[in-house]
Write a structure and sequence with these properties.
The protein has 93 residues and is an alpha+beta fold. The chain has one domain: YggU-like (Conserved Hypothetical Protein Mth637, Chain: A), CATH 3.30.1200. The protein has two helices and five strands. The chain has a five-stranded mixed sheet with strand order 2-3-1-5-4, with helices on one face. The longest helix has 14 residues. This is UPF0235 protein DI551_01360.
């Protein structure tokens, strides 16, 4: 499975994806960490600073590209100013 398939599998039945964002990273990437207790943490690294919504826009752009969905299909529901965010994913029909 590729990253797209792994991320798609982690979207819950309500269309929610829970992520942890690290702004001001050296490179943009998405990393899925599988912990010893069988839980999964999705980490998204973006190069933008967390100011004026720039980091959130970078998260949406990176997820849009990775999941192959339009940016308009992704919405930050919770955590607008926090590192832990809940993203709503609406797949086009």
């Amino acid at each position: 499975m590729g990253l797209k398939d792994d991320l798609t599998a982690l979207v819950d039945d309500r269309g929610l994806l829970h992520v942890h964002v690290t702004p001001k990273a050296s490179a943009e990437r998405i990393k899925i960490e599988r912990r010893a207790d069988s839980t999964v943490q999705i980490r998204i690294y973006v190069t933008c600073a967390p100011e004026d919504g720039k980091a959130n826009k970078a998260v949406i752009a990176l997820l849009s590209k990775t999941l192959a969905v339009p940016k308009t299909s992704l919405t930050v529901l919770r955590g607008d100013t926090a590192r832990d965010k809940t993203i709503m994913v609406q797949y086009p029909h």
